[in-house]
Description:
The protein is α+β, with helices and mostly antiparallel strands. Helix content is 28%, strand content 39%. The chain has 3 domains: 3-112, Double Stranded RNA Binding Domain, CATH 3.30.160; 116-166, Spermidine Synthase, Chain: A, domain 2, CATH 2.30.140.10; 170-363, Vaccinia Virus protein VP39 (Rossmann fold, 3-Layer(aba) Sandwich). A 7-stranded mixed β-sheet has the order 15-14-13-16-17-19-18, with helices on both faces.
Amino acid sequence: MAVRHYTLDFNVSTAVDPTxxxxxxxxxxxxxxxxxxxxxxxxxxxxxxFVGKNGRFVVLRVxxxxxxxxDLQCYEEDDIAQLDNLLNALENKLKxxxxxxxxxxxxxxxxxxxxxxxxxxxxxxxxxxxYDIDKxxxxxxxxxxxxxxxxxxxxxxxxxxxxxxxxxxxxxxxTRAITGSGKENYAGKEVLILGGGDGGILAELVKQKPKMIxxxxxxxxxxxxxxxGCKKYMRKTCGDIxxxxxxxxxxxxxxxxxxxxxxxxxxxxxxxxxxxxxxAIPISTSPEEDSTWxxxxxILDLSIQVLHPSGKYFTQGNSANLTEAxxxxxxxxxxxxxxxxxxxxxxxxxSYLEQWVFYTAWxx
Length: 364
């Protein structure tokens, strides 16, 4: 059973008298058969809760520093028209009671908490986004993460890995950026894709007739589960490329990428392009506390070792707002066993709703 959560805020220029303000609102609460309980705030303004027979719950708080807040919770199936009338009545009455002191009124759309379909996902820099998601079309758990594909009316189907929006069918800008933004010629080249289980990168590069593309994931089960979902529900991204694990100019290897990279290093095998689509740069800026940084360092080092001397390495970074994490990654690029130069590009990926950084690196 889901709950709707409405908020109504009033910023005022001077301190508010709780007694007169609250007494002016009581008639509205009583009309809705809401029972009042006053709570001790130890001198920090006024706080009252109101409980209704139909499950409605209201928190009214008059803060001592010039803010009045109203929070209303109710069940999803509650009468929305009645709720709107209640909030409008409270807003109109507070406008009268606080006349001349109001500097801002803010009423947000209701948050739907505990719904069967989760529509709220955070951006990399911690902002909350509500997507127009209406159904879950695929969900599985691998040994590493939860894999979901959700349908959005605006972005098409969206691949979500462990609560992070990974790629939507609308996100061709991501695929273009992580493959060199249309500036590279892949014809006749050897390409290694790390990750990329959604098939978007592979489908795009096959069009350019490379000599061979090898794609490998972080683990056996990871690749199978992501491919299984995407070839059924992300076909605007991958087309039919995932229907077969091998084609004239590509092969999808169902094995862990780290042992394979080490094997390539030992064999001296090199690639003209290495595209790392395994994971974004960690948000944490404490590498000693986050094992993802160590994994990223390992992948970086091995990838550069299998890169042809004139080859290029492509990877995503993270949100352009995460400057500390991005700077830490760039420091790591400067400490690899093989020296590299790099450049970065900032791209707007539609479903991310934030600017995203991509890196290109090459051997000095």
